[in-house]
Every structure is written in C-alpha cells, then in structure tokens.
Amino acid sequence: MKWFYGYVKNGFTEDIVELFQKMFIRSIKIDYVTLRSTILACAQVDSLEFAKWRDEYIGKSEYKIDTFVNTTHVDMYAKCGSLDLARNIFYRTPKKDVFVRSARIVVYGLHSGG
C-alpha cells in the first residue's frame, strides 16, 4: 500500500491513523512500506494512543525484532512523551546497532534524562 506514503507526505496523517486502526481491528496484514508510512504519521500527530496501537500490532508480527522498526518506535515514543515505553522497546530490540542506541540517547535528551 504505497499510497499510504503519499497520504502522509501530503498531510493526511489523521486519515492514515484511522485507516491503520481499521486494518488492525480487521486483522489485515500490514506490509513493510505501510508500516514505515505509519511511523511518519505518528511523528506528525504525536499520538501516544496511536503509537500504542502500532506497537500492539508490531508485537504480534514478524516485525517485532526488526531493528529499523524498533528504532523508529523508540523515537516515536520519545516524541509522544513516553520515556518508559521507549525504554521498553529499546530493551526488546535484539540487535542494538548505532541507530537504536542513538535513538535512545535522543530520548534522554528530549526528556532531560542524561
């Protein structure tokens, strides 16, 4: 669903949030491109509720251990104001590369925790 990306880039983030939630409720499989587009939507709407929806979906999917997805989740939770949830995602990430570690540093910088 590459058109998700187009919607996000053109400012229709609330529509993407709503559509993703409907897809989640109906157990529709989300592809990697769509998942990445929802990351951009989350960053633009700063919705902790939506971030939790995505995290619930990812926790049940093959993307649970994906370093890129987890790195963006750490960043997303930081932008939504949840240091604890960002930390939890960091710890569940099996491969802690420079990007996920940098995202964690940003979390603490945003929340004056380090």
Description:
It is a single chain. By secondary structure, the protein is mainly α. The chain has one domain (2-109). The chain has 7 helices and no strands. Helix 3 (32-45) runs parallel beside helix 5 and helix 5 (67-79) runs parallel beside helix 7 (98-110). The longest helix has 14 residues, at 32-45. The protein starts with a helix and ends with a helix. InterPro entries: PPR_At4g14850-like_plant, PPR_rpt, TPR-like_helical_dom_sf. One of its GO terms (molecular function) is RNA binding. This is Pentatricopeptide repeat. Keywords: Repeat. Pfam families: PPR.
Oligomer: single chain
> Counting H and I runs of at least 4 residues, what is the number of helices?
7
Query: What's the story with the biggest beta sheet?
Result: none
Shape field: globular
Query: Quick one: how many beta strands?
Result: 0
Count the domains.
Answer: 1
Class by helix and strand content?
A: mainly alpha
Distance between the termini: 39 Å
Mean pLDDT: 80
> Which runs of at least 5 residues are low in confidence (pLDDT < 50)?
none
Query: Helix content range of the residues, please?
Result: over 70%
Question: What is the element string, with H for helices and E for strands?
Answer: HHHHHHH
CA-based gyration radius = 13 Å
Strand content: under 5%
